[in-house]
Amino acid sequence: MAERLQKIMAKAGVASRRKSEEIILAGRVKVNGQVVTELGTKIKVSDEVQVDGLPINKEAPVYYLLYKPRRIITSVSDEKNRKTVLDFFEDVEQRIYPVGRLDYDTSGLLLMTNDGDLDNRLTHPKYEVEKTYVAKVEGIPTNDELKQLRLGVKINGKKTAPAKTNVLETDNGKKTAVVQLTIHEGKNHEVKNMFKAIGHPVKKLKRESFAFLNLKGLQPGDYRPLKKFEVEKLYEMTEKR
């Protein structure tokens, strides 16, 4: 059975489906020795695919949940030689990569996989997968300010999707608050920009959950493989749209 080239690449762990499309358009992919730049090209499993001159491996999919510490790069490599999330997976043979990203100074739950199809589902905004963050912010937000987040705020001219908010803690002496925020978008610096838009910059940020997954039993730097039923549930959640 023939499948689209970018889907085959994603399944092989080359990159997400959208990133694979960029790689194809850049002329970096050969099929049976011929450069292919047309998106949607269908190939067979028996066809030989090379990316940057190297054959892709059609390896079995793997899935991990990492408790990312702060001051770690969410990338497969870093030109400044800083520590990346892949450094926690030196014993994993498969070519895995992060699902979405967390900022350098943000800690919390990060999924790692070589399954480009699931990566695409979990990061595409149409599937509305919820992520919950806990933010320590400057000042103590009023209910009216938090209501702006619940209704959506404008960032760079675009309104954010409605969020769920919950004040967990306030410190009148230090003039700070700890606020739980649940969103289903994943734009760059989204949470930080949302709090900045209501006048309460983020001092510290942690992602506590991704869909139904949480950090229970893990310390920063720990990871665990996802259970089979967890992977199936993630697929089921993103089948409905």
UniProtKB/TrEMBL annotation:
Enzyme Commission number(s): 5.4.99.-
Main enzyme class: isomerase
Gene3D superfamilies named among the record's database cross-references: Alpha-L RNA-binding motif (3.30.70.1560), Pseudouridine synthase I, catalytic domain, N-terminal subdomain (3.30.70.580), RNA-binding S4 domain (3.10.290.10)
Residue ranges the record marks as coiled coil: none
Domain RNA-binding S4: 3-60
GO cellular-component term (any): cytosol
UniProt GO BP: enzyme-directed rRNA pseudouridine synthesis
Record's keyword annotation contains rRNA-binding: no
Keywords: Isomerase, RNA-binding
Stored CDD domains: PseudoU_synth_RsuA_like (cd02870), S4 (cd00165)
Cited InterPro entries: PsdUridine_s_RsuA/RluB/E/F_cat, PsdUridine_synth_cat_dom_sf, PsdUridine_synth_RsuA/RluA, PsdUridine_synth_RsuA/RluB/E/F, PsdUridine_synth_RsuA/RluB_CS, RsuA_PseudoU_synthase, S4_RNA-bd, S4_RNA-bd_sf
Keyword RNA-binding carried by entry: yes
Entry GO MF terms: RNA binding; rRNA pseudouridine synthase activity
Family, as annotated: Belongs to the pseudouridine synthase RsuA family.
PANTHER family hit by this protein: PSEUDOURIDINE SYNTHASE FAMILY PROTEIN-RELATED, RNA-BINDING S4 DOMAIN-CONTAINING PROTEIN
Protein name as annotated: Pseudouridine synthase
Species, as recorded: Apilactobacillus kunkeei
